[in-house]
Specification:
The chain is an alpha/beta fold. The chain has helices at 2-10, 12-15, 55-60, 62-65, 89-101, 129-143; strands spanning 30-33, 78-83, 106-111.
Length: 147
């Protein structure tokens, strides 16, 4: 959803699907954590994800779900984060490649390793030192965009 909000904020052609108005707010940077991107690709809407995207919704909202088509140069700099055992890990790397090919400023970070794996949304566990590192890395990223 974060990617959709940023695309709607920066692209009037995408925003029209939602009826949003651009708020009096300047988004200078964003973080996308363990997100689902390229949801229309084969094999993405499987298992539990199908509960969010039943077949009729995919048909009816196809263009709205094709978010990447609406990412423009106005998309803000992004901190992309995933983890070794995040079931959406590969999506983050797909988005990173897409952003790179379109010259959109971003960083990609993967947390955990074979000995210390982390899963989807691990960063919300504030008792986890790697979650703390992730959040501090994001904070440092945002600091670079504060005037």
């Amino acid at each position: 959803m974060g990617e959709q909000i940023l695309a709607a904020y920066t692209n009037a052609n995408y925003r029209k699907y939602f009826g949003y108005k651009v708020p009096n707010l300047k988004i200078k940077a964003a973080a996308l954590n363990c997100g689902a991107y390229f949801v229309l690709d084969t094999g993405v809407i499987v298992g539990g994800v199908q509960a969010y995207f039943p077949p009729q919704i995919v048909i009816d909202k196809y263009d709205q779900l094709n978010v990447e088509k609406y990412i423009t140069q106005d998309f803000p700099p992004v901190f992309l984060m995933t983890a070794t055992n995040d079931f959406l890990r590969n999506n983050a790397y797909l988005l990173s490649g897409y952003l790179r090919a379109n010259n959109i400023i971003h960083e990609i970070h993967m947390y955990g390793d074979e000995s210390n794996p982390r899963g989807h949304d691990f960063h919300i566990n504030q008792k986890d030192s790697l979650a703390e590192k992730c959040n501090l890395d994001e904070l440092e990223f945002f600091r670079r965009y504060i005037d």
